[in-house]
Model the fold of this input.
Amino acid sequence: MIRLIILIAIVAALLWLLKRLFSADPEPEQLPPSSENMRQCKYCGTHVPESSIISFDDKPYCSQEHVDLDQQ
Done:
């Protein structure tokens, strides 16, 4: 009787392990942290990546609209 209980426990553990191995979601892909510098828009103060900055008179802006608004 004890052998039967041990056998059932082993089979259950193996089934649980196999189910976990084959149905597990893959690890989410992690992106490397961005090392790009951030600049602050002179008009609104929003921080934007340096590659997205629009410069006018050596002043950083987040959009052309803010360049225009700051010139008024």
Summary: The chain has a mean pLDDT of 88. The CA atoms of residues 21 and 28 lie 16 Å apart. The radius of gyration is 29 Å. Helices lie at 2-23, 64-71.
